[in-house]
Design a protein that fits this description.
Blueprint lengths: L6 E8 L3 H12 L4 E5 L5 H5 L15 E2 L2 E2 L11 H15 L3 E3 L3 E6 L5 E5 L2 E10 L6 E2 L13 E4 L13 E5 L3 H12 L4 E4 L9 E2 L2 E2 H7 L35 H6 L3 E3 L2 E4 L3 E4 L3 H25 L22 E3 H4 L1 E6 L3 E2 L28 E3 L16 H28 L1
Parallel strand pairs: 1-2, 1-8, 2-5, 8-21, 10-19, 11-12, 11-19, 12-15
Antiparallel strand pairs: 3-4, 6-7, 7-8, 9-20, 13-14, 16-17, 17-18
């Protein structure tokens, strides 16, 4: 292969979501030539991996993509799926990225002379720097025990769920109570379906407290400015499950205990299937209590902030459980349960096998500091808690991109300087 015929880009961005296009925006601001490779379409996952009634769980005013802040009529509301897609379409139009859609990156490897060789489905290119903007949610997780379930049970992952009507008549088992699981369980419940929910250890928070959205209070308390280095858990916070809450119908709490009062069946973590019965951990009480403890703890921190700053606000309150499991149910006979479908809401695993560069730890996770790896020229953007809470969302991904692009510009200036010195010598 004649390397002289291979097209060269100073920067290759892998991924055309909000993280990749935020990086493109800042590269354009600094006049740095680049290309964005996106294996599907820009913002693909927002259109194809969200259910019909999906909406943001953070208020619209927190949508601050670079050069394209939210400017709609409802800053305190929560954009629905079609509004999100419209917002992102406007962002793409504003950025005008040099994007090549339908192009997958197969391999990125270092070159002996410096820089990187990038193999794609449309050919080979080289780059001085590579920005990994493909996120960390690549492969839907479905446990191997799913293979042993009866063939007439319809099984889908949360990424495939659209609405209650796509599932056959009968009860639905939702496995997992993180943001997606709790909201999909609610969506099915509101549609009149009988829901069985296997509850995990996800925490929850209030939607509104003492007269304001909890997000607004936490923003005032600088919670969203806290870096991963400042967080008590340090890098461990990246493994945390997000709090469940919803922006649906103007925003409200998700209270699984209330759902139980209304007929939803709650269980502990689903552990196995023995050929006849589903087997659950007896940790439901512990999980519900833990979620409520987090809920009340966040509110207590807001109480302290209000008191310390002498803010006039409605009185404080403490959540009191409206329901408790009468007994733990470790087993459920599948044949007699009425369950006709299962929605797996237990997350995704990353897949960075195409990145043939030693920037990963023993667990296969990227090692970086604010997106900058120890390998010069390799960067990550858009991962949860890359730097702050907002790193994987519309809130702070633009600031993360600006930081990385500044680093890229410095890296290129240093290389140019070294080349100039070498020529002079």
């Amino acid at each position: 292969m004649n390397e002289n015929l291979i097209q060269h880009y100073p920067v290759v961005i892998v991924g055309g979501g909000q993280a990749g296009l935020s990086t493109s925006y800042h590269l354009r601001q600094q006049g740095i030539d680049h290309v964005v490779f996106e294996k599907n379409k820009a913002m693909h996952s927002w259109e194809t991996q969200r259910w019909d009634n999906f909406c943001l769980v953070t208020p619209n005013w927190q949508c601050e993509l670079p050069g394209h802040p939210y400017a709609g009529p409802d800053p305190d509301g929560f954009m629905k799926k079609d509004e999100i897609l419209s917002y992102l379409k406007g962002f793409r139009a504003a950025v005008e990225p040099p994007i090549r859609e339908g192009v997958s990156v197969r391999r990125v490897a270092p070159q002996p002379q410096g820089g990187f060789h990038v193999s794609t489905t449309s050919g080979e290119v080289t780059a001085d720097a590579v920005v990994v903007a493909s996120g960390g949610y690549h492969e839907p997780i479905v446990p191997r025990m799913a293979e042993r379930l009866p063939a007439d049970i319809v099984q889908i992952h949360s990424a495939q769920y659209r609405n209650a009507d796509q599932l056959p008549a009968g009860d639905v088992l939702v496995v997992g109570s993180g943001q997606s699981g709790a909201q999909i369980a609610e969506d099915l419940h509101l549609a009149g379906r009988k829901v069985h929910l296997a509850v995990g250890n996800a925490p929850r928070c209030a939607r509104f407290y003492r007269g304001r959205d909890v997000v607004s209070w936490l923003a005032d308390m600088s919670y969203y400015e806290m870096s991963v280095d400042e967080h008590p858990l340090r890098e461990g916070v990246r493994d945390n499950t997000n709090h469940y809450v919803t922006g649906r119908d103007g925003g409200r709490d998700i209270d699984l205990r209330k759902f139980a009062l209304e007929g939803m069946e709650l269980y502990g973590v689903l552990r196995d299937y023995d050929g006849a019965e589903l087997i659950f951990e007896t940790n439901l009480t512990q999980a519900l209590d833990g979620a409520d403890r987090t809920y009340n703890g966040i509110n207590a921190a807001i109480d302290h902030h209000i008191l310390e700053n002498r803010i006039d606000a409605p009185p404080a309150s403490v959540y009191e459980p409206v329901w408790a499991p009468p007994t733990e149910r470790p087993r459920l006979d599948l044949a007699s349960s009425g369950i006709a479908a299962i929605v797996w809401c237990i997350g995704f695993r990353p897949d960075f096998r195409w990145l043939d560069v030693p920037v990963f730890n023993g667990a296969g996770h990227p090692q970086h500091r604010r997106g900058v790896t120890q390998r010069e020229g390799v960067y990550f953007i858009g991962l949860p808690w890359l730097h702050t809470w907002g790193s994987g969302r519309f809130g702070s991904v633009g600031r993360d991109a600006a930081y990385i692009v500044d680093h890229i510009a410095g890296h290129m200036a240093a290389r140019t300087g070294q080349a100039t010195q070498g020529s002079a010598a």
